[in-house]
């Protein structure tokens, strides 16, 4: 039964991947990418990698398609027909795929008990985690404590990526101004169903994010997953009620500050360990009892991870939304996007030329 389930999931993954590469409608490709992430999460579940599945579901099937859709709103929905680039891309993918398949020959068989990963560090993690770290979730022990320095590097990478997006989009962002006839009310969704459903869902999303954040020691979860879920709540609020509305809750400056604060919390936890005579990120120095110190350190660094991940995701959504507003302002100034007032009919009519212009510009 497990084998049939694995074959079915792999077959669906293959069909989805080929469809993403083949289809020219980029919006459909974004939706398929979310499906691919969800299927990957299911495949990880069958392998027993629950934490990895959780991360893939939150990132691959959750926020990534949303950010791709925001990108498509700027660059257009349909892919340009460029056969030379398509051939080059196919050649590159085939070459890299052949190299990866060749490399798997030297890899140990899946589940091999004599594999280096099984014989080197895994026994120590499995046998010593409860005594040394004192938490049930061994994955959290590995990520937050045993290889905490590596996780710190991952958080810095996320922060750096956010700075990169900030520098690219802020450098080309127009001066903040309202497009003619575009008020805060007009930016809100006029669909009463969306507004009611959003109001019902946002609070449970935030509560679940807090649960995932502080329950990572005992079950699947942690700062990475919680940060993405928390960001999804803010992004959903912004999509339904408008950018100005969500900025009243968390301004752009506050989000930028929090993206750095999370990294600072993580780094200062390691420095505090050094100040107490232990190694960097050796949390046993944070309390008289080593296990209690591990608990305190893991809670602190997971909080830092969650803050940085959530802040960076929200900041990126703010930047893309501001770019969209600038595009509307530019089109309105050129007469391409006519101002027709605050009525729902006027909004629908004014949005249509913008969409058509972007699709034509994308080929």
From TrEMBL:
It is found in: Cell membrane. The chain crosses the membrane at residues 6-23, 30-50, 56-76, 88-105, 151-171, 192-211, 223-243, 255-275, 295-320. The keyword Amino-acid biosynthesis does not apply. Keywords: Cell membrane, Membrane, Transmembrane, Transmembrane helix. Residues 339-363 have a biased composition (Polar residues). It comes from the Bacteria. Pfam families: MbhD, MbhE, MnhB. GO terms for cellular component: plasma membrane. It is a multi-pass membrane protein. The keyword Membrane applies. Residues 193-314 form the Na+/H+ antiporter MnhB subunit-related protein domain. Residues 101-177 form the MrpA C-terminal/MbhE domain. Residues 335-363 are annotated as: Disordered. Belongs to the CPA3 antiporters (TC 2.A.63) subunit B family. This is Cation:proton antiporter. It comes from Microbulbifer agarilyticus.
């Amino acid at each position: 039964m497990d084998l049939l389930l694995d074959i079915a999931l792999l077959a669906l993954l293959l069909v989805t991947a080929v469809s993403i590469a083949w289809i020219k409608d980029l919006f459909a490709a974004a939706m398929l990418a979310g499906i691919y992430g969800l299927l990957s999460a299911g495949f990880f579940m069958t392998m027993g990698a629950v934490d990895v599945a959780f991360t893939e579901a939150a990132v691959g099937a959750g926020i990534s398609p949303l950010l791709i859709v925001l990108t498509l709103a700027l660059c257009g929905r349909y892919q340009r027909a460029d056969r030379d680039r398509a051939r080059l891309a196919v050649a590159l993918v085939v070459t890299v795929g052949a190299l990866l398949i060749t490399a798997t020959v030297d890899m140990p068989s899946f589940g091999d008990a004599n594999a280096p990963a099984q014989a080197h560090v895994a026994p120590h993690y499995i046998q010593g985690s409860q005594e040394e770290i004192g938490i049930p979730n061994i994955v959290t022990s590995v990520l937050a404590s045993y290889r905490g320095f590596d996780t710190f590097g991952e958080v810095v990478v996320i922060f750096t990526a956010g700075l990169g997006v900030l520098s690219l989009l802020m450098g080309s962002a127009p001066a903040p101004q309202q497009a003619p006839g575009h008020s805060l009310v007009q930016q809100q969704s006029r669909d009463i169903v969306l507004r009611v459903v959003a109001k019902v869902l946002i609070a449970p999303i935030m509560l679940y994010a807090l649960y995932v954040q502080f329950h990572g020691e005992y079950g699947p979860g942690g700062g990475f997953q919680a940060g993405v879920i928390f960001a999804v709540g803010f992004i959903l609020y912004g999509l339904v009620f408008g950018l100005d509305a969500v900025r009243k809750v968390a301004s752009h400056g506050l989000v930028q500050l929090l993206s750095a604060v999370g990294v600072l919390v993580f780094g200062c936890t390691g420095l505090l360990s050094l100040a107490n005579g232990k190694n960097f990120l050796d949390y046993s120095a944070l309390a008289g009892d080593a296990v209690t110190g591990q608990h305190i350190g893991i809670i602190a660094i997971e909080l830092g991870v969650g803050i940085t991940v959530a802040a960076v995701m929200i900041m990126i959504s703010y930047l893309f939304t501001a770019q969209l507003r600038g595009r509307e302002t530019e089109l309105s100034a050129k007469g391409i996007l006519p101002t027709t007032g605050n009525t729902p009919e006027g909004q629908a009519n004014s949005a249509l030329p913008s969409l058509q212009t972007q699709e034509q510009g994308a080929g």
